């Protein structure tokens, strides 16, 4: 199959409520959507969510990379196109992944085909910070069916410990709690926080220190009262091997956007298990396309709640057939394949580029 056309869109998705990370607060997600069509009319979709302050890549450089690659691969067989983009993957990894995963969908990758109904429990983030708000929110989330809750930390050690304690008290053992620092702590802060935690209901403590500071993260894991998981440190197979060699890292989390293809993602999830660590999967900032792909990869590789709940955060959904969700879980039916809601996407498109038939120039916001 040959690539006939590519549509690139930068879409703004306002959130229901702000989503807080230690390095950025999202009021909206602004992913790049890649839509590829072949000469037989088949469609493949991919997305790149490039978070400000987290990557050398920016939303604008990612969009420009996709535009340049689309010009190059137009008319190519999909296999050759995927290889060509992979050869320059490091130049703009998140944007390249959006492009290559769109080709995988176009090629009807077995990983993206569901031959049976699948139920996938999801994690939900805790947004409240004061004890009363935490109690109310946890009651609401548990009532909605969620059984895994994530608490973001990275303020002061004292404030963070108080917030975790308030969450544990409100939770009363009903749900698993994951704590995520998004590498906000120094070694000293991380050790102080991790060694002071009450283990009650805590599944793991995620990414205490800078991704490249392996010794610091190991030091925290050495004194932690709960299992430690690495996230931002894990971008390649070498990183997975390094984590496994430390001897005290309990889990590694992967995100599709860092790993080029869904095929590679599944391979790396399996490698984590082979090394005796627990694989965890999911991007809390992805929208429906990325979340669907991670849900497909989750099947048969992961035994815990998925973190690909970003599609629940925007005020509206971008698919004609929205990702089925009920009682804290995705219910992926056999044969499910996402289809963009062109009207909704067009309404919220900031920039668009069409390469191929009916070509248009990179433009400003849609009406």
Question: Can you walk through the features of this model?
Answer:
The structure is a single chain. This protein is α/β, with parallel strands linked by helices. Helix content is 35%, strand content 22%. It is built from 11 helices and 16 strands. It has helices at residues 59-73, 78-87, 93-106, 131-143, 157-171, 187-196, 214-223, 237-246, 262-274, 288-298, 342-347, and strands at 3-11, 13-20, 25-29, 32-38, 43-48, 118-121, 124-126, 148-152, 176-180, 202-206, 228-230, 251-254, 278-281, 325-326, 329-332, 349-355. The strands form 4 sheets. Strands 7-8-9-10-11-12-13 form a 7-stranded parallel β-sheet, with helices on one face. α5 links the parallel β8 (148-152) and β9 (176-180). α4 packs across α5. The two termini are 34 Å apart.
CATH topology of the largest domain: TIM Barrel
Q: Please write the CATH class name of the largest domain.
A: Alpha Beta
Low-confidence regions: none
CATH architecture level-2 label of the largest domain: Alpha-Beta Barrel
Portion of residues in beta strands equals 15-25%
Quick one: CATH superfamily of the largest domain? Enolase-like C-terminal domain
Whole-number total of structural domains: 2
Number of strands: 16
Q: Tell me, what's the shape?
A: globular
Mean pLDDT: 94
Please tell me how large the radius of gyration is: 20 Å
Helix content: 25-40%
């Amino acid at each position: 199959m040959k690539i006939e056309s590519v549509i690139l869109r930068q879409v703004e998705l306002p959130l229901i409520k702000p989503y807080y990370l230690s390095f950025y607060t999202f009021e909206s997600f602004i992913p790049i959507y890649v839509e590829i069509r072949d000469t037989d009319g088949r469609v493949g979709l991919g997305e790149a969510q490039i978070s400000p302050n987290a990557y050398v890549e920016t939303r604008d450089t990612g969009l420009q990379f996709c535009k340049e690659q689309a010009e190059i691969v137009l008319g190519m067989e999909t296999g050759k196109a995927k290889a060509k983009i992979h050869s320059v993957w490091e130049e703009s990894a998140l944007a390249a992944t959006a492009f290559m995963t769109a080709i995988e969908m176009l090629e009807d990758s077995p990983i993206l085909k569901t031959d049976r109904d699948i139920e996938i429990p999801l994690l939900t983030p805790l947004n409240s910070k004061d004890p009363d708000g935490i109690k109310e929110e946890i009651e609401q989330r548990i009532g909605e069916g969620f059984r895994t809750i994530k608490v973001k930390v990275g303020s002061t050690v004292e404030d963070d410990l108080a917030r975790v304690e308030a969450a544990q008290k409100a939770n009363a053992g009903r749900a698993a709690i994951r704590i995520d620092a998004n590498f906000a702590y120094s070694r000293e802060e991380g050790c102080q926080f991790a060694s002071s935690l009450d283990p009650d209901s805590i599944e793991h403590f995620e990414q205490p220190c800078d991704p490249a500071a392996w010794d610091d993260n190991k030091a925290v894991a050495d004194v932690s009262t709960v299992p430690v998981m690495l996230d931002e440190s894990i971008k390649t197979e070498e990183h997975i091997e390094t984590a496994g060699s430390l001897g005290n890292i309990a889990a590694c989390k992967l995100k599709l956007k860092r790993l080029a293809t869904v095929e590679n993602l599944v391979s790396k999830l399996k490698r984590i298990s082979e090394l005796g660590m627990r694989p965890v999967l999911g991007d809390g900032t992805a929208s429906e396309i990325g979340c669907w792909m991670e849900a497909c990869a989750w099947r048969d590789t992961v035994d815990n709640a998925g973190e690909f709940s970003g599609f629940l955060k925007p005020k509206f959904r971008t698919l004609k057939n929205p990702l089925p969700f009920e009682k804290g879980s995705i219910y992926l039916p056999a044969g499910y394949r996402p289809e963009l809601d062109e009207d909704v996407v067009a309404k919220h498109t900031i920039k668009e580029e069409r390469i191929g038939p009916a070509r248009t120039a990179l433009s400003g916001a849609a009406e």
